[in-house]
Design goal:
By secondary structure, the protein is mainly alpha-helical. It has 15 helices and no strands. The radius of gyration is 20 Å and the shape is globular.
């Protein structure tokens, strides 16, 4: 049944994918006056009635989210991509509960679970419609005192990855995709924890499941950050090594995160022209997110008054274009 639906779904996203702005078009956005950013985004194909550039970009991601859930023959495979947003929303809701603040303007409307349902879990303990890993982590930190923001975030991030792996269980590509994400996330975690001198037992609370790199081997490497890399031989091993070298030279994991994004986008691109799998749908979503991230970087830079050349240097390569 799924094989019948995928050609139709892919034909729909092909049109939208072809309309995504190229890297060169995003670069030109750096020359746009601050008060014309929303209009410029509209001219680039981001349909929205808002005059706020942040809302325009959010509206576009919502439209991608809704479209994919509507047309995907196997929605659970698409929902796996959205679990990180569920974790983010729960993190916001829990912190706002502790601080007595309104979370309404801080959550995002493109997770796998409606924000209202997550809010009931945090405020009332009502777990209806929320998967067990996320429920378990949220309820633990709903009651935990004293509240530790790092450990709360770590528990929810890990729970979201566990649920994403469950959503994609039995699907080889998603297993490969999440393994790459987890490996990059875990190496970045070790680099940050070493630089900040975190206790290892605290850092390991944020260790992501589903990766290919053994936790003990990575922990041993992180003690001195020397010796054979435990990711040697992985398809993205060279990217990990480049990212780690840059992180150690600069003191920032930004380059490692860039290598992660480039690696998973390349993984999706290798399946871009398949007609009977979910991979092109996933590739389109990640491409759209990459484009939105690029546009957001440019617009935020313009808002901050950064020079256009500085903004261009910070832009990442895009999946489309």
């Amino acid at each position: 049944m799924a094989d019948i639906g995928y050609p139709y779904a892919i034909s729909i996203i092909r049109t939208r994918e072809g309309a995504l702005p190229t890297r060169e078009r995003i670069l030109r956005l750096a020359d746009t006056p601050r008060d014309q950013l929303a209009r410029a985004l509209g001219e680039m194909g981001f349909a929205s009635s808002s005059e706020n550039w942040e809302q325009v970009l959010s509206d576009y991601i919502v439209s991608c989210h809704d479209l994919l859930l509507d047309i995907a023959p196997e929605p659970r495979l698409i929902m796996a991509l959205f679990r990180g947003w569920d974790a983010l929303n729960l993190q916001v809701l829990l912190k706002c509960r502790v601080l007595g603040r309104d979370a309404a303007k801080m959550t995002v409307p493109y997770g796998a679970i409606e924000v209202e349902r997550l809010a009931r879990l945090v405020q009332e303990g009502d777990a209806e419609g929320v998967p067990e890993p996320l429920t378990r982590a949220a309820l633990e930190w709903r009651e935990r005192q004293p509240f530790d923001a790092f450990l709360c975030d770590a528990a929810l991030d890990v729970a979201a990855r566990e649920q994403a792996l469950a959503d994609g269980r039995g699907h080889a590509f998603l297993a490969e995709y999440f393994a790459a994400l987890s490996d990059f996330d875990n190496v970045a975690l070790m680099v940050r924890s070493k630089a900040a001198a975190w206790p290892m037992d605290r850092a390991l609370r944020a260790f992501m499941p589903g990766g290919n790199i053994d936790q003990d081997a990575l922990q041993a490497w992180a003690q001195a950050m020397d010796g054979p890399a435990p990711w040697k031989g992985l398809p993205y091993g060279d990217a990990l090594s480049r990212g780690v070298d840059k992180a150690r030279a600069t003191g920032s994991t930004a380059a490692l995160e860039r290598e992660r994004d480039d690696s998973v986008l390349a993984l999706c691109a290798s399946h871009r022209y398949e007609s009977f799998t979910v991979q092109p749908l996933i590739g389109y979503y990640l491409a759209a997110c990459a484009v939105v991230s690029g546009c957001r970087l440019v617009c935020a830079g313009r808002e901050a008054g950064l020079d256009a050349d500085v903004i261009r240097e910070r832009l990442r390569e895009q999946y489309v274009g």
